[in-house]
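Supplementary Note 2. Why include the ligand at all?

Several targets in our set were suspected to adopt different conformations when bound, so apo predictions alone were not considered sufficient. For every target with a known small-molecule partner we therefore ran a joint prediction. The input for pyridoxal-5'-phosphate is given below.
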Amino acid sequence: MANEFAPCTEAQKQAVLERLAAIRQKIAAACQDSGRSESEVTLMAVTKTVSPELINLAVDAGVTTLGENRVQEYLSKRDAYRADAEVQFIGHLQTNKVKQIIDKVTLIHSVDSLHLAEAISKAAEKQGIVMPVLLEVNIGGEASKSGVSPDELPALLDAVQKLPAVRADGLMTIPPPMTDEAEQIRVFTQMKQLFDSLRQSVPMQVLSMGMSGDYEAAVRCGATIVRIGSALFGARSYPPKNEG
Ligand SMILES: *Cc1c(COP(=O)(O)O)cnc(C)c1O
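The joint prediction is reproduced in token form.
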């Protein structure tokens, strides 16, 4: 796949740099509004369908963290990535693909079942590492979305903590698309409260929420990682295959 990408035009590159600057300003403003320090928020560049050339341009411009959501796409592109970018996995992960990425990512955002956590723990043990993970919460309660309900979360967290080679570092959510800002704030506040209540007994630091359409609200509500794709790289054109 890496070589299926046409070289980028200067105009495309310029557009990415301009969007990146605008996103940074908005994150800074949201931090200021909510009395947070900018250093608390990581801007993750979500790379699906994006050429390595543009991804590396974002890294050159100071983006430290890349978000991958398809195993095959990531494996086909990673050799072309700048080696110093930190790569995290954010997509739905099938247990049989865990071993393909376990030694190539620093955080898995999308643990939505004990079954998956067990597979990650097993693969991590084989590598002699402990894999940090986030538990994915279906905060909107949509049947089509992955993630556990807030009610199921304490039991999953308990069980994950008993596994030898995973460490629960926090929570992640993909809420339903919301254009209304008050609605965004309501949902992200719910996530933050859930996060804070669990943190009374488990030391977790990472709250991964906010995408292109709602990251400012997410930052105001306490997100520590915002995952941004289209607002940075432009609209995606999907390849025919959609694999996890
Ligand atoms: C694609 C994707 C994003 C980024 O979506 P945009 O709306 O383009 O910013 C964030 N998180 C996950 C899990 C994704 O799959």
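The longest strand covers residues 166-173. The mean pLDDT is 94. Comparable summaries for the other entries are listed in the accompanying table.
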